[in-house]
Amino acid sequence: MTLRQKITLTIGVLFMGLMLLTAGGRPLLRIAGGLAALDGLFLHWLWYRCPGCGGRLNWTARWTYCPHCGAWIDYDKQ
Ligand SMILES: [Zn+2]
Q1: C-beta of residue 66 within 8 angstroms of C-beta of residue 56
Q2: Which residues contact 68 (CB under 8 A, 6 or more apart)?
Q3: Tens digits of residue pLDDT in 48-72
Q4: Protein residues with C-beta less than 5 angstroms from the ion ligand 1
Q5: Hey, where are the domains in the chain?
């Protein structure tokens, strides 16, 4: 999986969870939504790293270069 796919997947899971959480369905659905949202956040935190040095990237920005080692981040690398 490329970094780009990981980012898309985790953000997709996060938003799906948030939608379930705020849709106001059954309590069980809302709990499942909350868990999915947390999962998405956790996976994003886990996966959004520099492929070079493994440093964690701050997810408030879309990095072109790693803030730790300065390497160019290849979002399409497998
Ligand atoms: Zn780096």
Answers
A1: no
A2: 50, 53, 55
A3: 999 889 999 877 778 899 999 999 9
A4: 50, 52-53, 55, 66, 68-69, 71
A5: 1-78
60 CA distance to ligand 1 centroid (A)?
Answer: 17
Q: What is the pTM of this model?
A: 0.80
C-alpha 14 to ligand 1 mean position (Å) = 25
Contact 45, 56 (CB under 8 A): yes
Distance CA 5, CA 45 (A): 14
d(CA 37, CA 18): 6
| Residue partners of 42: CB distance under 8 A and separation at least 6 | none
Of 55, 26, 2, 78, the closest CA to residue 70 belongs to 55
